[in-house]
Amino acid sequence: MAAFDSEALHKELQKNQLSKFLLLGDEALSRKEAFDILRQFAKEHSYLEKLTFTIDRYFKWDQCASSLSAQGLFSQKRIIEIVIPSGKINAESGESFYEILQNFSQDDLLIVHLPQTDRETKQQKWFKELEKKSCTIRLDEIKPGELLSWLKKRALLLSINLDEEGIQLISQFVHGNMLAADQELNKLALLFPNQSISFDKVSQSISNVSRYDTFELTEYVLNGDQIKTLSTLNFLKEEGQNPISITSSLSWVLKPMLEIKELDFRGQSLENYLTKSRIFGDKLTYVKKALSFFSVKHLRAAIQKLSEIDKISKGVSPGDAWLETGRLCLGLAKIASRSRKI
Question: 34 and 78 in one domain?
Fold first, then answer.
């Protein structure tokens, strides 16, 4: 799958009068931009009231149906956002969702987000109905072979003039993380406006923050370095970093770690699996070590917390995203530190 193309989505919205959108995937930058574009589109077309539903095992579908069937405030057109974090719903919920889709008001705009789907989900009646009636937007992680061309296109959009070596260096630095790549490009645009940016300038920019980026933070957390974890968290917060960039970096390594613990990978298969998950070089070394520090229970709890922080960051749930991110990072670092001493 090709990476999400924001320009293509803008053009599609201008060309066709669309009112139902299915977002598939969970790459952090693509997800943010897709939601931003669709919300702006909704605002420009007078969808002034917003209803957001996050689906879990306790979700009340009857209440959802009642809310959707009720007339909007002052009969305003509404934007309806439905997020299914697990990508799955049971048979009874599926029937309820199917009925909602059948009776969905043509005056409202619908956005449904599924971070992941499997073959079973794609065979469900509700999913087929949703896919049939919606414009599907893929939010996949970028393939390694596509990153360089994506960086060049992104730099062009930001009016950044980078040489080939500079593009290569950024590619190596971000390890396929599109959110980190976008942050690096925006930083370069601020540091070197209206000028050519050489390899040396890119190198200088990266080295100036290498102590305090989200990748280094993830390493400190998994290695159990509580002091560096705390100092890096404080720095990133003061610099105005979005907690999503931290949780995305953590999620990138914690999810493969959980799968490895659950499937009991051993020997060469372990390293192959991590490599396929785009965990390379130094990151591969410390992730392999960290597998012995955390239990399945620890990792499941951490990934659940990441999901909760994501909802807070998007305004779906109340709370302080930075506070919860700090608690999670320091909690994991403490577990790793304690395990190293045993």
Answer: yes
Domain-located, residue 324: yes
The secondary structure element, H or E, covering residue 79 is: strand 77-83
The neighbour count for residue 156, using CB atoms within 10 Å, is 11
pLDDT of residue 134: 92
Q: Measure the N-to-C terminal CA separation of the chain; round to a whole number of Å.
A: 44
56, with CB counted inside 10 A (0-12, 13-18, 19+), is exposed
Residues 168 and 60 grouped into a single domain: no
Tokens of 50: 């917003």
Which domain covers residue 201, as residue numbers?
A: 144-212
pLDDT at residue 14 is higher than 90: no
Token output for 11: 């053009």
Distances, alpha carbon 175 to alpha carbons 127, 132, 192, 217, 296, in Å: 33, 35, 23, 15, 26
Does one domain contain both 73 and 171?
no
Q: What is the pTM of this model?
A: 0.64
What is the total count of domains within the chain? 3
Checking if the pLDDT of 255 tops 50, the result is yes
Integer-rounded Cα radius of gyration of the chain:
21
Of residues 272 and 43, more confidence is placed in 43
CATH code for the domain in which residue 260 is found: 1.20.272.10
**DSSP bridge partners of 81:** 52, 111
With cut-offs at 50, 70 and 90, classify the pLDDT of residue 278: low
Nearest CA-CA partner of 329 in 223, 251, 218, 238: 218
